[in-house]
TrEMBL record, chain A:
Pfam families: GMC_oxred_C, GMC_oxred_N. It comes from Streptomyces aurantiogriseus. Residues 505-647 form the Glucose-methanol-choline oxidoreductase C-terminal domain. Its cofactor is FAD. The keyword Cytoplasm does not apply. This is Dehydrogenase.
UniProtKB/TrEMBL annotation, chain B:
It comes from the Bacteria. InterPro entries: Ferritin-like, VioB/RebD_dom. It comes from Streptomyces aurantiogriseus. Pfam families: Ferritin-like. This is Iminophenyl-pyruvate dimer synthase domain-containing protein. Transmembrane segments: none annotated. Residues 17-244 form the Iminophenyl-pyruvate dimer synthase domain. Gene3D superfamilies: 1.20.1260.10.
From TrEMBL, chain C:
This is Dehydrogenase. It comes from the Bacteria.
């Protein structure tokens, strides 16, 4: 078993890892005296493309895939398997007990509901197929217990995290948005106040701007704004109180390249071919893959690191600098440590396996470091810690697993709005993101989808099947110019909304490990227990009712069903679907949003949290556990931006603490 | 030895810049024809090389337009009088024998082939392939190389007697933030210095390269280049020499040497056999003929859009970019389509700029041709 | 004249296939040729239903198309192919192939009579087939993940060419 030593070892090769590494390298070099740490990044999956021509093969793989799910372009090995939405089944329950777990694929689903999201185990991580939405969390999201007696408070406030949001938007991700478009509850008439800059050196006077102008709102967004802006949606609370919400369509900040707001901002194009991807080109496939690489992925940051800080001795005349090594196909099996139950301790090394897929058995290695960072995705971090018996004096590791349960509603509009063009979403309706109603039901975010019924009805495939027919009578219903014309009447009028519900932390929603469930390498597979609380479920009828009022405004409130195609509301939820959820006698489909959060929550109290506000383990003094897992509550923002802000803050701390480490 | 004709009036300088926009534009269809003829996913290195040059020609067009705008003249497709020669047309047709620059030879629209690449090298060689500038016969306008033409423009821009300081104004500039896709930065022209900087960028990157640059290193790629545009340290000439020889330059080699680095894999078989047929030589009627006309209409609209973007119309540039994307799809479709009467060849986009007055008639004809097959 | 042939020379099988495809999809032969897939899909058809059966289909198609051409209608195509229990299911799969770039298997009823080949399973014929699916053009869009229309194009009003 080989043994190596680094200043910093990071487990995982996604955005959290890349952000920590870049921040540590740059911050440590700026310290006095400057330090130049040697960093190792261990990635369980395969290395992904680091040049544009290789990247194109992933695009091709997506185009050739029969079913174009998020992970379809990214092959996984049985030695580092990854969850796939195609594997989602319902476990068989007897009351609250699991009779038969659903263990197709990578996850072992214990129920009662299946956890509906996936992630990618490849270099670059899930940013390979994220949508790129970059909403900050709202001030109340950090103070849920104090404000609404729900969930817990964060050990950080919005104001405290703000400088790191700014750095995440400028220095890591590159976010395109205009401040004036952001009509968040509490700041509807003064978005500039929400964004008032923390960094007054970069933004003299505090007037914040994003590094790039907004991604233009789709024609659909403009159409909706024309019809629905200013309308009131009225929803009734349990005690009969009527809550009025004024609709304003709001352009969504996103991690895709657009026009720089200042000539000094450098747009980062494709990895290994910077000329490409300097603007979003409208490929309309952000999920599963942005062919132009105009959307941020962690590959961009990782590529910069390995080009600027190669892992070799400086050649003569070269400046001393940090060194970053990336090792893929290297799965960390165990965190070695001195911790005894109820006490604190130190990490003494990592045991990892490197696999080859060429017929040779995997090899086992050990690595030690001054500081260790787990940044392997919330579920992977928790699985590894639980398997290692590490950092869990609080008994919170693996608990409070969250996602944004997502309710879809969809309809056929009266007019051609040009569906299937542009990024997956360019606007939303933020008004339901906060309000006093959060005492009794969760907030939700409204995402307007630009890709017709691609998500709810597998369009355009199923639309073609409906029109062309076949099946029992084996006869073409429509063909020739009639078919072409009819598709032109239907497809560009398809429209859908995703109502993304905040999920509250529940200790029973958790990741566990079970020695009976291991992958080909012998690593524990995640065993998931998952349900939606009454608090979340109570928002399902609200979202459904809000949708009805909006659709009425759009003149499409009449209920319709395929294969008939007339303007109307096509929303329907089949009770036999794996994602069906009952509430108050109604059935809903609740999909996963791919936001895997909350398995090693942060907090000030070591008895109720796993890490502190710097994502430093309460139990192990040289261990940081970073990523979405640290978030105590989720709010209604897609979590990647907040995770990135937290990772920058952690990177700063690690750089300060490097002390004599590095040269 | 003859000397290039100097530019001696502001009027001639403006005409020269109108023609300079056209010179930059004139090479783009030549490169695009080769680029779009490559079968999808094949010859990726060659395609990337050609594309990088196209992007820079686009930049050069923009720079020339910015200089012209700064001299308070609107870029236009209308013929100009230059050095006493009347009716010089900025927007070219093909095959093109430049009335302006005698050494450049005939520009033809050819699919990607050794012959096409030889043509590229000739365009981008400082002396257009000649060993000595004296070998080139001077043409009507007195410029043998693109370098001489830009040399004359540079001298005139430097001369306060031709253009006084007051002649430069910051107007109708395409800003750098609006330009993307590679090829470095747009210079906004506000005075003589920035005008000269804009012209220097055109000359340094491209086909106006001074002959002595052949004695320089062919390329010098740094860490920053690997992170940004790796092409910036490479002249067009060096890039096309690599294609021509099927070898990369090694670090430290001079531009006039034969590249001795890694093989650059080129497969001239993975190319659509497109055959350029001029408009008056129509061999395709029916829907194939319609597709050719529709391409020309789209190309004409794109050229107009670019000129509008160069005239201070802010929405014109993004729309021109959409038109470029559309044009690419149309070109690729044409190149896959066999010529009915000559099935060994496929259609070749003509890049024919149609006069505004002719377009309605052409559009009607395209509709009629499509209907022939229905 | 279809495909530029002289009035006397009979159309080649590929030409019949192209003309049939044009009648079934509503896209003319230049639009179909522009996808670069005429040869690929001709081969796909032969691979899946067999050359012998394809020969029957193309003979029936040639006759029907010729009749319809003379009468400026589509009655023969409708009667001899669309409504035919023998050719109808193949026509359905062929339309979907052109529109979606995927082959969708023939029905059990078809196979009960005409048999089946091992290739007659659902599959994406090629990445190019996906990219050139006619459904995207019919929708006034572009294939998801290919042929991007450029920055900000999605903010412009949609455009559909008038179907002739």
């Amino acid at each position: 078993m080989s043994n190596e030593h680094f200043d910093l070892v990071i487990v995982g090769g996604g955005i959290a890892a890349a952000t920590v590494a870049k921040t540590v390298v740059e911050k440590a070099a700026a310290e006095y005296p400057a330090r130049h740490p040697r960093i190792l990044i261990l990635e369980a999956g395969r290395a992904t493309a680091m040049s544009a021509d290789k990247y194109d093969t992933y695009v091709e793989a997506y185009q050739e895939a029969l079913i174009k799910v998020p992970n379809s372009p990214y092959p996984a090995s049985s030695s580092a398997p990854q969850p796939d939405v195609l594997d989602i089944r319902r476990p068989v329950m007897e009351g609250r007990q699991t009779k038969t777990p659903a263990d197709q694929g990578y996850f072992v689903q214990m129920g009662p509901l299946p956890f509906g999201s996936d992630y990618a185990r490849s270099l670059g991580g899930t940013t390979l197929h994220w949508l790129g939405t970059c909403l900050r969390m709202l001030p109340h999201d950090f103070r849920m217990y104090s404000t609404y007696r729900r969930g817990v408070d964060w050990p950080l406030t919005y104001e405290e995290l703000k400088p790191y949001y700014e750095r995440a938007e400028w220095d890591i991700i590159g976010v395109a948005a205009n401040v004036d478009d952001q009509y968040y509850p509490g700041f509807v008439d003064h978005p500039a106040e929400f964004f008032k800059a923390a960094d007054t050196v970069r933004f003299p006077g505090g007037g914040y701007s994003f590094p790039m102008e907004r991604i233009p709102s789709s024609y659909l967004d403009q159409y909706l704004a024309k019809l629905a802006d200013g309308m009131t949606i009225s929803l009734t609370g349990r005690d009969g109180t009527v809550h009025d919400f004024t609709v304003r369509i709001s352009n969504t900040p996103s991690a895709r390249n657009s026009t720089p707001t200042t000539p000094t901002y450098e747009v980062v194009g494709a990895v290994g071919n910077a000329d490409r991807g300097q603007r979003c080109e409208g490929n309309s496939s952000c999920i599963p893959i942005c062919p132009a690489q105009a959307k941020y992925s962690a590959l961009k940051t990782l590529y910069e690191l390995i080009v600027r800080y190669p892992d070799r001795e400086p050649v003569q005349g070269e400046q001393v600098r940090a060194r970053v090594a990336v090792r893929s196909q290297s799965v960390v099996m165990e965190v070695l440590h001195t911790q005894k139950p109820g006490e604190t301790g130190t990490v003494t090394g990592l045991r990892y396996k490197t696999y080859y897929d060429d017929g040779n058995p995997p090899t086992e290695h050990r690595v030690t470091a001054g500081t260790y960072v787990l940044a392997a995705n919330a579920i992977e971090n928790a699985t590894l810690l639980l398997a290692s018996g590490a950092a869990n004096n609080s008994d919170q590791v693996g608990r409070n697993l969250m996602d944004h349960p997502l309710l879809l509603t969809w309809g056929l509009l009266q007019e051609n709005v040009g569906a299937f063009r542009g990024p997956g979403s360019t606007s939303g309706i933020p008004v339901f993101r906060d309000g006093p109603f959060r005492k009794e039901r969760t907030a939700f975010r409204v995402e307007i989808g630009n890709w017709g019924w691609n998500f709810p009805e597998n369009a355009p495939y199923d639309t073609v099947h409906d029109l062309v027919g076949g099946g029992r009578d084996g006869r073409a219903r429509l063909y020739g110019k009639d078919l072409r014309r009819r598709l032109g009447e239907i497809l560009p009028r398809q429209f859908r909304i995703a109502w993304e519900l905040e999920q509250d932390p529940q200790s029973t929603n958790r990741v566990t490990v079970d020695d009976r469930y291991r992958d080909a390498l012998g690593k524990h597979r995640p065993v998931l227990h998952y349900d939606l609380s009454e608090y979340v479920r109570a928002s399902l009828p609200w979202a459904a009712e809000a949708s009805k009022q909006l659709f009425r405004r759009l003149g499409i409130d009449e209920t319709q069903r395929r294969p008939v195609y007339e303007p109307g509301d096509y929303t329907h939820y089949d009770p036999h679907d794996a994602s069906a959820v009952e509430y108050d006698g109604m059935t809903y489909w609740v999909r996963g949003a791919g936001h895997v959060v909350g398995t090693h929550r942060m907090g000030d109290d070591p008895r109720s949290s796993v890490v502190d506000s710097h994502q430093h383990s309460h139990d192990l003094d040289n261990l940081y556990i970073v990523g979405c897992g640290s978030m105590p509550t989720l709010g209604t923002s897609n979590p990647t931006l907040t995770m990135t802000a937290l990772a920058i803050r952690t990177g700063d701390r690690i750089a300060q603490d490097l002390k004599g480490a590095g040269r | 030895m003859t000397q290039p004709t100097p530019i001696s009036t502001l009027t001639d300088l403006k005409a020269a810049l109108q023609l300079a926009i056209g010179v930059e534009l004139s090479t783009i269809p030549v490169y695009l024809t080769a680029l779009y003829s490559i079968e999808e996913g094949r010859n990726t290195d060659a395609a990337q090389t050609i594309r990088s040059v196209v992007m820079e020609e686009m930049l050069h067009m923009t720079l020339a337009a910015n200089v012209l705008n700064a001299l308070s003249e609107v870029p236009s497709v209308e013929p100009v009088t230059f050095q006493g020669h009347e009716g010089l047309v900025p927007v070219p047709g093909y095959p093109l024998d430049s009335p302006l620059i005698s050494g450049i030879g005939t520009l033809r629209l050819l699919p990607f082939s050794p012959q096409a690449v030889d043509g590229f090298v000739r365009i981008e060689h400082p002396l257009h392939g000649a060993a000595d500038v004296a070998e080139i016969a001077a043409g009507a306008c007195g410029y043998r190389t693109i370098g001489e033409f830009y040399g004359a423009i540079t001298l005139a821009l430097k001369d306060p007697a031709i253009c006084p300081d007051s002649a430069f104004q910051h107007r109708n500039q395409v800003p750098d933030t609006q330009y993307y896709g590679g090829a470095g930065h747009v210079v906004e022209v506000r005075d003589r210095a920035s005008a000269l900087q804009a012209v220097r960028t055109i000359v340094d990157e491209g086909e106006g390269l001074p002959p002595e640059h052949l004695e320089h290193e062919a390329k010098k790629v740094t860490t920053e280049d690997r992170l940004r545009s790796g092409w910036q340290m490479y002249s067009h000439y060096a890039r096309f020499r690599e294609l021509q020889t099927g070898r990369r330059f090694r670090t430290g080699q001079l531009a006039n040497e034969d590249p001795e680095g890694a093989l650059l894999l080129v497969d001239y078989g993975a190319v659509h056999p497109a055959l350029y047929v001029p408009r008056n030589g129509d061999r395709a009627d029916g829907p194939e003929g319609a597709a050719l006309i529709e391409f020309d209409l789209a190309y004409s609209g794109l050229v107009d859009g670019l000129y509008r973007a160069f005239s201070g119309e802010p929405q014109a540039l993004p729309r021109a970019v959409h038109a470029m994307h559309e044009l690419r799809s149309r070109a690729v479709a044409l190149m896959r389509t066999r010529i009915p009467a000559d099935p060994a060849h496929t259609l070749c986009p003509r890049f024919s700029y149609l006069p505004l007055g002719d377009r309605e008639k052409q559009a009607r004809q395209a509709v009629e041709l499509r209907e022939q097959s229905r | 004249m279809p495909n530029g042939t002289s009035p006397t020379s009979p159309p080649t099988p590929q030409q019949i296939f192209t003309d049939l495809s044009a009648a079934l999809t509503g896209f003319d032969r230049a639009e179909l040729a522009g996808t670069g897939l005429v040869d690929t899909y001709y081969d796909t058809l032969l691979r899946i239903i067999g050359e012998r059966e394809a020969g029957q289909l193309l003979r029936a198609a040639a006759e029907a198309l010729e009749t319809d051409r003379r009468h400026h209608g589509n009655e023969a195509l409708e009667a001899e192919l669309i409504d035919s229990p023998r050719f109808g299911p193949v026509v359905v799969s062929l339309i979907k192939l052109w529109y979606l770039g995927s082959w969708y298997p023939l029905s059990g009823r078809y196979r009960d009579v005409s048999g089946s080949t091992a290739d007659d399973v659902e599959h994406v014929v090629s990445a190019q087939g996906y990219r050139e699916g006619l459904v995207w053009a019919a929708a006034g869009a572009h294939p998801m993940g290919a042929k991007p229309p450029g920055f900000g194009s999605w903010a412009e009003p949609p455009y559909l060419p008038p179907t002739l």
